[in-house]
Every structure is written in C-alpha cells, then in structure tokens.
Prior knowledge:
Distance between the termini: 52 Å
Number of strands: 19
Shape: globular
Radius of gyration: 26 Å
Structural class: alpha+beta
Strand order of the largest sheet: 12-15-16-17-19-18
Oligomer: single chain
Amino acid sequence: MTGPITLTEYEKRTVALDGGAARALVAAAGDRLRVGASTEPGEYRLEATQHVGSIVVPGATVLIRPKVALENLFVMLEVGEPDWRPHDFSWDTAGGLLPAFAAFFARSVERTIGPGLLYAYREEHDLLPALRGRFDVAAQFRRQGVAVPIPCRYEEFTADVAENRVLRAALRRLAVTPGVPPLVHRRLLHLLARLDGVADVHVDPDLVDRLHFTRLNEHYRPALRLAQLVLRNVTLADRAGARAASSFLIDMNALFQDFVTARLQRLLRDRLEVLAEPKGYRLGEGNRVVLRPDLVFRRGGRDVFVADVKYKLLGDELARNPDYYQLLAYTTAMDLPEGALIYCSTETGPPDQMITVKHTGKRLWAYRLELSGPPATASTSLSTLARWLVHHSSRLISTIRQAPRGDPV
C-alpha cells in the first residue's frame, strides 16, 4: 500500500495487502478490526467495528473515522474548550484521529500546566545523615541498632504527585507512537521536559477514577481525562528489525454511553437521580435472569423511567427489534409503563417516535440525540433530552405502582 487505508465505522472494504501486513493488523487490532482473506490472491477483506482511530503496522496504516463530526467526538470526550476551533484538527491535514487527538492532548496539557505544575505534600521515608521530620522507629528496629544514617519520615512539597505522573505517562506513550506529526511530537517532548522532576513510572489508567478532585487540582481534570484515554487505548508492540506497530482505537459505543450518562447526571441534578447501570433487577420470578439497564431515573427514591443508550447510528427506521425486546424486558421487570431507547443520530428526523406494545400497553420510545451539527447543536439536543425526561417522568410518577426491586448485589 502506498497510502493509508481509510475506513468509516462498520465499513467493509477489500484491499491489497501482503500476508505479513495482514497478520500484523490482526495482532495489533484484535477483534476491533476484522481481517479476512478475500477470494483474490493478495487481497484481504477489512471490516471496521465501532472502534475508531488508527492502526500502524509494518506495511500498512489503517485509519477508521467516526461518522459523527470530529468536533462532536471531542465534545463526547468531555474536554471541549471555549476557544477550540474545529479546523485546527481537520481530517484532511491531520490524516486521522491519532494526530488530531495528540494535538488536542498537547494543547490541553499546555493549558493545564502553563501557569505552573501542581505541587502537594507527600510523606517520604529515607535514610539521612541528620534527623529530618520524625524519627522512623519501626525502620530503626529493622536496622538492628545501626546508628547512622538515621531513618526519617518527613513531608516533602513536591510535583511528583499522582496527577503529574498520569500526564507524564500519557505524554511518554504518545511521544513514541508512530503517526504523531513531527510538530506535535516536539510539543510532547517539550511538555515532558516541563515534567522532568516527576517520576517516569507505570501508571494504571484507573488511577484517574480514584483521584479526589478539589479546588486545588480541578483544573487538571480535562487533561487527566484525555491522559486516561491515551493510557487505555494507545498500545505499542515493538518488532525487531522493523518499525513499531501501534494502535489507537476508541470504542464509540462506550464513549457515547459515558458521555450521555455524564451529561444527563449534570443536567438533571436536583430534578431526577440518574443511575448508571444499577444492579439488583431481575426479569424472572425467583430472582432469575439478571438485568443491567444503562440508565434508571428516580425521583423520591422511586424508579420512574428507564432508558438504554445505543450509539448505533439511527437512520430512517423506527428502531431495531432486539433493542425493543431489551427495553420491553426492562419495563416489564421494573413494572414501569414507559421507557426509551436513546440513539445517536447524524441525520435529520423526528426527535422521538413511540410504539405501544400489544396486550401490555407499555410505551417504548426511540429518541434521536442529534450529533450531526456543530457542538452547540449537540449541547442543545442534550438539554432538550433532559427536559423531555423530566416531562415524561413527572407525567408518569402518579401512575407508577412501585414494585419491590430486591436488594442490590
């Protein structure tokens, strides 16, 4: 291949590849990109899934683009900035999601640490020639009476804290990833130099979820969110005698669900409690058949509405049969009269459509969340959805017979 292979989500294409490149794609992407042999020698069938991004291996580069606009993808990442300009990260100039994401991440880190690094006190244990802080009695007992150096415990005001370690690990990962443009690569190296006093250690991406945010580190949150995505989704595999293989792939199903959940929790605060994938629901008698709806809405401790979030881009059809069956199971198990399927939509159409299920009277809605326009349109669509949910919940609350839900597991 002389240039990158470009696909869109769920697109299928037959391309010319040598066997080594095809095997390398399978090893780097796994089931996130399906690679199969074609009927013609030297050709392979590529099928994209819901993962978007890039895969770089010796002999081939595959770019998988989302169907939503690039600027809306960054809105879904929950890191939009007031002066962000969509043309800064054009597909035509950047060539894929990785260069655009790397540039956006570099900019976010620059804005975060530009005024100065975050410092905090951290307890240290060390052997010193003179006492500093407190004498470490336990350490001294382990030393069997050796007088010097002295085991000490003391507080040090340092930039080598968890927040900066996460940023450094993500910057380091991107800096050695094939496909990052030279200009962006230099920015990443400059930022690494700014974090020179921070330990270069392995960082678990889940560390970001365990951080406690206060007014002192709140400004780090957007950059840490991006860093977590880097650490979770950028993979490297060095190959002897050839350039490195890498992949940067984001699961749009998971991203869309997380985005809708976070925004609705924010928009509905003090009006509806929004529970993400709550446990404790059963479809069958005797607590058989476990159910985990994406979203459950409560008011006054009572379940009033249920919804499932579906990134699958909705066209002109009403909705998909398996999605209706799933939603019907939720409304039946929870004894709710209504529920909704919240779809991502990139086409104009009615904002919501409804069917009434025979013999039960349950009303199942298919709601289109508009993501075809600019970021402002996406925000407006989410606010409209929040009002829609409040309206339906308020209308239903007096008619709902709250059935026992069972203890959470």
